[in-house]
Structure formats: structure tokens, C-alpha cells
Amino acid sequence: MNRKSLIFKPLSLTMLFAFLFQVFFPTVAFALTGGPSQPETQSFTPAGVSELVDPFSGNFSYNIPLMDVGGYPIGLSYSSGISMEQEASWVGLGWNINPGVINRNVRGIPDDFRGDEVVKTFHMKPNRTFGVGASVPIEFFGVSDEKLKAIKAAKAAGKSASPFSLSLGASAKYNNYSGVALDIQVSPSISGGLGSKSGYTAGLGFSAGNSGVGISPSVSFTKQIHENEKKATSLTTRIGSSFNSRTGVQELSFGASAAKGDSNTEAKRKRAKKEKSGESEVLKTIGGHVSFSAPSYTPSISNSFKNRSFSVSASIGYTAYGVDGQARVNGYYSEQLVRDNVIEAPSYGYLYYQDGINSPNSVLDFNREKDIGYSEEVKNLPVTAATYDVFSVSGEEIGGSYRLFRNDVGTLFDNESTNTTDGISIVGPEFSVGGVAKGGVNITVNTAYTSNKKWEDGNAMAKVLKFRAAKTSEAYEPVYFRKSGEKNVMSDESFFNKFGGFEGLSFNLEGSSTMIGSSFNITNKLLGSKEGAQIASGAEENLNKIRQARNEAIVHYTAAEAKKYGMFPSIRNYDWTSFSLGDDGTYETTTPDERFDEQNPEAPTARKAHHLSEINVFSGDGRRYVYSDPLYNFIKEEVSFATDNNGDGELVQYTNKDESEKNTNGLDHYFNKIVTPAYPTAFLLSAIVSSDYLDIDEVQGPSDEDLGSYTKFNYTKLVGNHRWRTPIEEGQATLNEGFKTKTNSNVSDNKGIYVYGEKEIKYLHSIESKTHIAEFELEDRHDGKGVKSRRGGIGSGSLSLKRLKEIRLYSKKDKLENANPVPIKTVHFKYSYNLCAGVSNNENTGSETGKLTLEKVYFTYGNSQRGTLSPYEFAYGEFNGELVNPDYQRNENDRWGSYQANTGTPNNTEFPYTSQVYQNGRYDADRNAAAWNLTAITLPSGGIIKVEYEADDYAYVQDKKAMQMFKVEGFCELENDLPSNKLYGDVNLTSVYKTYKYLKLKFLPIIP
Length: 1008
Prior knowledge:
mainly beta, 8 helices
């Protein structure tokens, strides 16, 4: 049971929250404009791959060798599995030419953020509550006047003077979020008599209101174990629980206490004075509670709130006819509002943890499995997960996924936030009417202060476990790259064992947080060991000082380091319309980009000196692959806001006011905007040099005078940034389906969401080696347009993307010596816009309004044009003689991402599963799988390759055989009745609900 409650339950709650978070605040955005990354960088196929089916995904793949440039092969590759939202690359939908790239999958905060400010703008309507309540505690069968002293003593001790009491209460409140609420409370109790030295109390609380029905039983027992004229000692035990009709059993509480007090009133007065002066005696108490409703959430940038509250209460007591009671009336007002609408949070990625731990406002790059508060009863802290980025390296003869590893162990924390309020307390007037009644009025304005910040008080390990950047030796590296899952020998086994090896650990945190020079025991709680390793608080005790060995070497440079030590001090740019060679045998460049912006380093669109800028990867034979062209996304804005519109289908129209702090829509007037500054999304392959390469001339990077062999890759950067957005439609946002109601009549929770960004676009301009060069000629294309502005829309402000027209291979000597050199080989590309017609970012208005489609590829040699007669020709979307080429429609895809029409009930958003409808001798899903995919290749030899597709499927879910899904046709009382979609007899619910004895399912035939 402990294992289930401490591991599996938190894990399941975390996974549930992750699912719900994606429903309400999706982090993956589908966009025709491509998102932060560029489609040309998203796929890579080595030239030597000959398999037609990807063994991992089951997708069809095809590779056409185009040419060899100084020993480096260039190929045209295809990969199936086309989706509705997929953007076509520069050679057509599904095709790509990519010499090599390092793609970066950002998880959380980019690893190379070092104080880069993530700006969060947040607004919600203040939460206000007005309430009034009344309660009447009554004691029945009170005692006689002779026992007046005993009554007073009992009341002073907090005990009832009667064996039976009843408390009645009622309250009403209004909240501007949840409306009017009424609650009724009934609490009977029974207790032991006054004359006994032991007493018991049994209580039962009952409440009913808009939050459900609540029951709170409790039992306590008190025993006086010693008493004389001056002192009295008692022992009390208690146990209780609470249950709510909506949330179930919430908690179980238990405890015991021993109290030493005074027997007479005069002694109590004296002791009260001592207690006010801090001289009270120790009261021993043990106890705890078990909660069954602990929340789970993902840490984020925390906002500070301001709280205001005001309360007034009046009471009157009475005694008559054996009934002793008191009537209380109270009223209150409370308000909570956002204190800081704009937060500029300095963010620190995994690479720079050591720089962020000294700033309380830092946002660090990590996450948790489950977030709960630390207490004496529950000492388990949430499992911390560093959200390091994943770098996917691709190139001929190299490849794999890499990530950063740290050589130290430290502590992480959330950014600091405080919730405050100011207040005063006013004691009101009191009155009495003889000995029968008395009353009074109090007015109170509450004061509260809460803070969420780094845990330092009572946490001595915070001084020891600190991330550090100081070098202990020339060989020490704070952070290094290593291939994910790589198996190698640990360099310093003692460092591993110092932290308990493979065993679970907990730290003894006793002592002051300012202790220096002490050591802290690590206790193995899983095995119950009482002794463990010790970590001293020295400056280097948490460091792995021995350099970690790796099977594959990968070296990274920041922008500042690359400017000094990198292969290219600046980021080269080439004119896409010019292919002139200089006297040194290299192509002439245009104005280069500096690796970091020294003039305006604080701008959110600026390259920073601490950003990753060059990565070198070494192959097994010693060749060095240099990825020195960082591809930047300059800004990203994630915006969500309340809307009073249900939208047209999946989109909702909005105004400038809606996407601002002035939003007045819906129940909460919600507006949230997170702006992420510039960071590189990929690193393009810039050069490959041999193991004996040496740069000996004054030319930046490889050139003909250098020793050894090389292959250099040059890139064209388009003028202006490409603006991307989802959705692309102007003035529209995606309607959040998580709050959509069945009737669409309640719009109070509707949210609109859009994501906007700006990125740079680069294309391969040329490839150079000592003997050959290849030139990539570009031309404008009609699709793939960016948006005009953050409001979306296609127009005059949209950047025009390019497509590859042809590739020309030359002998470098011929190119240098002749004014009109003849290419050795030329690759020609012919296109249409036939696939997925009707896309929003195609500027054509008549025919060919789809995505860029590669129709034909052919080769010519020298001045001969004979190759035009023997092209590669391609056909798409053919299935059993039928053309499957549906027009573009939002959200017409299943859970796999494959095409699926959105015409059914329920729609794809509500029911994203793959259709299993059997129709015309085949499954619809198999037909859909062919949509837009390559289905026929006519070879230059005249042969034809035919490709048939079937829907994605799986045989097992973990170790269990996959089950089949069935549709529910309806409910009925008798087996032969027609199924109905209603559980009740009529729509007005006037009759008793239907006794649905039969649940009818629609069985689908299975084709082997």
C-alpha cells in the first residue's frame, strides 16, 4: 500500500495533469507557417540508406542520389506519413535535401538561457466574496447554581457544562465567480459529566450547500491523571475524519496530548501573565493527519497576489428555562487580485544553473513529478526532473541524440512570489441586560503574508549542494555533451558512491542553515541503513572532479567563445542570386551576422554572447563535423484569453481589447501572455574537415591553401524575418475545446489561444571542396507564406519563401578559369501545387492553391539535354484506382496525425481515434493513409514502383494484447428494442429514467 500511495498514485496524478494541461493549455501547435523550426531541418536521410520501409515507424521512404561533391554525397529523400498541417520543404511536400543539421528539442527553458528574461503578462478579474452567517450553540439541561464554579471552570477549560449540546448554523455568500451559495450546519455532541475526572466528547458535524454534503465525525477522551490544590495534569486522545459527497473521504486526523495546568482561578491568572511574557510551560503533543486529496501541478512562473478582507461579528448570550445558549451573527468581505500583472523573470537553463541559484527571482530549467508541501508527517519531497534539451545530430556517417550532463549536484527552487495584505483590528462595544443576556460587536480587518521562495531556513544542505562553475583543474568541465543512453565506465566511482550509489537516499537536515564546516549524514531510507556516506560542506565536495570519458566526442562553443576559437568568427551570409568565386577560390559573402549583439544585448530579438553558437562532432575516423550556423527563432508569444464567442467551428474572432489586460470577457476576464526571447532552434552543418586538416591561411574557415581535405557548406539568409502563427487566419484564435459545452449556450469559460513568432530562414547556397563545387539556385514559390503581423493574415507584409530550381555541379578549376563554365551535371526540379488544395498561405486565387508538390526530377550532363527524356516522375494519393487528395481543412486528422474527415459525430476533437468503418471491401483508415502520400514512382528506365499504404496499428499495449474499440449505439430496456441515445424516457425528464438493461455496441468486421 505504501508503494502505491507514494509512487504510483503521484505518477498517475502527474500523468493525468499532463493530459489535462495539454487539453486546456496545449504546448504543441500545428501551423502551416512551420512554428519555431524550419521544415528543411526536420528530416535527414543518409545517402547509403536503401530500405524502402523505415523499420522504426513503418513509413515508406525513398532516396534518390543526386551527386557527389568532393566525396560528400547529396541525396533527395522522401518520407511518408504526411499530415494535414505539415508544411512543404523547399523541394515539395514530403521531400527534402538536407546535408546535415543538429535539431534542438527545447524542453522547458532553452539550456543556454543565462538571465534571458521571459516576460509573463497576466490578468484576471479580482475574486470578491460577500458573506453573512448566523449560528446558535445550545446546551440543554444545565446544572444548578451550586455548581456555578464548576461551570466556569469547565468553560475556562474549553469543555461543555452540559452532557448534550447542539449547534445550529446557516450562512449565505455571494462570489463574483461562483454566484450565490447557501450552507446549513448541524453539529450535535455528547460529553462526560462535570464531576468526573475523565471525560469524553463525541461529535457529528453535518453541512449541506452548493459544495456538497459534508459529514465530520469525531471522538475525544480526556483523563485527569494527577490533581492537587495547585496543579492538574491531564491526558487527551482524539480521532476524527471528514467526508464530502463530491470529493469523498478527504482526511483522517488523530493525535494525543498531555497538558499541565493550574487547578484554581487565581493561579491561572498568574500563569496567563507568564505566558504573555514567554514563560509558559511546555505542552507535549503528538499527532498527524492523512490527506486523500493532495493536489498535483506543474511549476511555472508564479504571480504574486494581494488579499484584502474585512469582517464584523455580533453576539448575544442568554440563559433561561434550563437552556444555555448564544446567538452569533457575522458578516465578511474578502478580495483577491493580481498584484503584479507583468513579471520579467530572468531564466536560467540547464547549462547555467550555477548563475541562477543566487537570484530569488530566477526561473530555473526543471520540473517536478509531484508538488506537495513538506511537513514533519510527510517528509517526501517531490521528484525533481531537470528539463535539459535534446540535440539530434544528423550527417553522413554520424548521428544520434545528445544531451548535456552536469558534473555537480545542486538544489533547485521556484521563483519568489509573495501574497500580502494590510489590516487593523477594532474592538467594538459590549452590553448586558441584567444576568439574563449580554452581547458585543467586533470589527476585524485581517492581515496575512505568505511567501513562495527558495528553501533556506532549516535546510542546511542548501549550503552544500550548490551548482558551481569554478574549475578545479584544466581537465574539469562543469557541463559536457554525451550521447543519450551511451554506456561507458564512470570516471569517479567514489563520487557516485558518495551519494549512495544505486540506493534511495534522504538527507538529514537537522541544524542551522548557516552551519559551515560540518558534515551531513546521508541515510538510506529504503533499506533502513543507519549509516551512510558523508558529504562535507567544502567548496568542491559536490563535484565530479575527474573528466568523464565518452565514446563519441562533441564540443560546444558559446557565441563569445566561437568568435575567438570557432572555425568561423562570424555567421556568413551569401546572396541567393549571385554565385561569384573570389580569387581565393571561395564564394563571395554579403554582410555577415555577428554571433552576438554587442550594441543592444538586452533586446528580446538579440543574439546573446552566452548562447550556444557552434557545436563540433567527431566521427570514429577523426573527421570533424562543424555545425557553426545557428538558426534562430527571435521571439515567441503564447497568448490565451477569455472570449464571449463560441466561434465558427474551431476558430474564434477576437478584438485588440480581448488580447490585453483590458479583457472583460467571460467569467474571469482572463488574459495570459508569455514572451520567450531569442534562442537557436537548430545548428546547420557548416564544414567537414579531415583529421589532418589545418587552417594555415588568412581566409575564414576552409580554403584551398589549407592542409588536409574539407567540404564547406554555405547558406543564404532571406532578408527579413519569417512571421509564423497558429492559427494563420487574421484576427482569429483557436477556440479552447477544453471548456466547450454541449449546447454552446454557456460561453463563460471559453478561451482563445494563438502562438506567434519570428524566425530567420536559411537555404543551402553552395557546397565547396578542393576539387568540386555545387550551386543551389532558388526561385520564389506561391505557398509557405508567413503572416503579416501577430494578428495573422497573408498579405503584402508576408515573406516569400523559396523553392529549389536546380543544382549545378562544377569542377572548381573550370569555374575559376572560365567566364562561362559548363556544369558537369545539373539536377532539375519541376513542381505544381496540387496536393492539399485550399491552404491559407498560398497566394494563388485560381487553381493550384495547395502545397508545393514535386512532380518531376531529371538530370542533364554538360550541354546535353537528353536527360529531359528520362525523368523521375511521381504520383500521389492513389488508392485502388481512386485519387485521395482532400482539400485543406483544420483538424481533419486522427490521433496518429493521418488524414481523417471531420464530418462524423462526435468530431475529431471529441473522438480522435482512427475510424474502423468497413466499407467497399476495405477500411476507411487504409484509404485515408494514402492521402497526399507518394504512391507511384516512374523511374528513368521506364520501370514503376507502386506503393500501397495501410493505417497505423499496434498489436500490443505494453505486455497486453491490444483490444478493439466499439461504438456505443445506444441504450434500451428490452433486447430487441431500437437503441436510443437518451437515458431518460423523454426530453423533459418528467418520467423515471429508463432502466437500461442493454448497452448495444456496433461490431466491426476484422480483416486479417
